[in-house]
Amino acid sequence: MSEQVETRLTPRERLTRGLTYSAVGPVDVTRGVVGLGVQSAHSTASELRRRYREGRLAREIAAAQETLAQELAAAQEVVANLPQVLQEARRSQRRGKKRVWVIAGAAVVVVAGGAVAFTVVRRSSRPEPSPRPPSVDVQPRP
Length: 142
Prior knowledge:
This protein has 142 residues and is mainly alpha-helical. It is built from two helices and no strands.
């Protein structure tokens, strides 16, 4: 048994064969012309799709370039304002250091005042020694 392998003809081959053979000529010629028309339409549509995609891609690239230019301009503005921002930050840090020194000084004054008050209270709670001699011998006996 032999298998019949039917190869599909391209529209161009079909047109050529149709023009060659006269018996099946009109059918093959018609099919060949229609096939060439379909292939041509498909090729044209593919080309139009490709051009559309490239055009859309070009628009997207242009939009990305515009966005990038805006971001670059914003970054340049930030860099241009950087010295002023740093100077303001230094000023605010100086104020903060003054504030810390004032708070530290107040804390030292409060601690010193507390120490003086503690000393005064402690001394006042101890009885003062009597100017008279003691009535009992202070020396221990051997």
